[in-house]
């Protein structure tokens, strides 16, 4: 079975772009969330193998969402999706328990590489 | 981090000890059957290992000992009469292997590509990943600086890895395409590792090579002392002489301590033997038990290292060729289970190690026949061959060839190698045997190689050094009566008759008519005599230096030394001299 991914991003364009890259890389997109709250709800329902998490979202930050998800499942594997210049936020999410990050605009190879790296643990 | 490593060292040495005890118990179970106390003891040992392993993060060892603990607990509760000996032994072997794994420090230099976005975060992710698998000791620049991008795309990590996991390290680093390249360098260990026990340092570990160096320096110091002593006794004033005397006493105490640093119990090289005998005898369908006595006796580590192979060799001989199969033993009226006994004794600076078995002994006829075939002896010699001659044949390099393993059911396999090793370390070997009853090989070695008590004698124009081990007294010739009986010289000391030999004659030099003023009484294990020499110069400690192999092949030369005059002298073993010289 292909690993299942939950994509969390408030921009539909980004969700589509990430989804396409991952599908081409052999992953199954099991769900998409546009807010942090939705992400937490879907994580409980879907139990995905990996989550991609935008950092800046309208309701709650991706970092808080990471903390909440890890409370539900300490082994959750979360990949942060960051913009250039957000190093402090990326470091905060890594310290909160996210496993890795990618930087927008991203090259498809870097996305797949990061996801594989996390799943390989 | 550093402390954990120290605890690990301590953990390893303790588990090693416990494991040895476990092996002993298991072998006892095999012999005496399951007893409650054995199971209890084993349970306790594995419980201890489990607890310690968990606290130093040795997960694999923890798992294995946990499983064994469970198994033993079950046996205990269910009162089982059977125990999976092979399985326990296999698990023990696994623990042993895990203990041996060498943890090494490595320094890794990682170079990120200049295009790496958020390089601080990338370095952080890589470090976190490494932390999951390995113990990180140091990061340069430090982690806070890295997080603030205060580095130029390269950073260093010092970590501890087991040698075999370097590949895994590389695999992890290769996961990151942001890493342009990396270098892995081994970091040399510190020379001294402290042992911490209950917050109090009672022991420190010193690398043996450091001790070797100290002993070598000690040797040089002794030579200097002797030179100084010579000058002072000739020209020194009273005050200087007195001061020198107390200096000498201090030096002697230091010397004793230093020499004892290198002494370790023989147990260290024998602990694997019960298991070895068990496994090897099983393979051959034989039943053999081994008994070891006196393994607490301490011997110079350097000597022990050299003795390990000879001892294993002798035990191997006993298993292969000495002890018979159970049926044959019963047929010959012997106990079904054969026995190998190793006993260690210490006497006046000499250690005796006896390896004895109750096997079939040495078949003289076969030995003689084979010796004839090989041309070691001549046909006319065969009628009267002494036991000594048999031993000589057995230790002849021509005789001791691999080929004989199958063609000869007696001994001789590699005995010459054993003998040569012993001669090199100033020892000797003796073989007692009785056909159908067994064989005993006795190894004789000095306790310490480094510094010995000796008497310096003059004979003819030369000086020689004789170890004091077997010297029981030095007498002025005027005070002992020497008489001649059937052309041989004798004397009586303390109501005991001693044959009298002239040192010069045996060593093979002319004494140019110099008078023999003194006699040295020597008492060996099976021989005692008085050796006449021109005069005794002094009694002192000498530092033994190994000689060129050509000299070491002369049986009565056990080493060399440099005396106060700065010149080299031979150290002569008087007993071998009388037996082999002349």
* Mean pLDDT figure of chain B: 82
Distance between the termini of chain B: 66 Å
Q: What is the overall silhouette of chain B? A: globular
Strand order, largest beta sheet of chain A: 2-1-3-4-5
Helix content of chain A: 40-55%
Structural class of chain A: alpha/beta
How much of the sequence of chain B is in beta strands? 25-35%
The percentage of residues in β strands of chain A lies in 15-25%
Widest sheet, order of strands of chain B: 16-20-21-19-18-17
Uncertain spans of chain A: none
Task: List the total number of helices of chain A.
Answer: 5
Q: Element order, helices and strands of chain A?
A: EHEHEHEHEH
Summary of the model, kept short:
The complex is a heterodimer of chains A (121) and B (582). Chain A is α/β, with parallel strands linked by helices and 121 residues long.
Which helices and strands, and how do they pair?
The complex is a heterodimer of chains A (121) and B (582).
Chain A: E1 4-8, H1 12-24, E2 28-33, H2 36-46, E3 50-54, H3 62-72, E4 78-83, H4 87-96, E5 100-104, H5 108-119
Parallel strand pairs in A: 1-2, 1-3, 3-4, 4-5
Helix pairs in contact in A: 2-3, 3-4
Chain B: H1 2-32, H2 36-55, H3 59-78, H4 85-100, E1 103-112, H5 119-133, E2 135-140, H6 143-147, E3 154-162, H7 166-174, E4 179-187, E5 192-197, E6 200-206, H8 208-235, H9 238-261, E7 263-265, H10 267-270, H11 273-283, E8 288-293, E9 298-300, H12 301-322, H13 326-331, E10 338-347, E11 350-357, H14 364-374, H15 387-394, H16 404-407, H17 415-424, E12 428-434, E13 438-446, E14 451-459, E15 462-467, E16 471-476, E17 482-485, E18 488-493, E19 496-502, H18 503-507, E20 518-523, E21 528-533, E22 535-543, H19 549-552, E23 557-562, E24 568-572, H20 574-580
Parallel strand pairs in B: 8-10, 19-21
Antiparallel strand pairs in B: 1-3, 1-4, 2-3, 5-6, 7-9, 10-11, 11-13, 12-13, 14-15, 14-22, 16-20, 17-18, 18-19, 20-21, 23-24
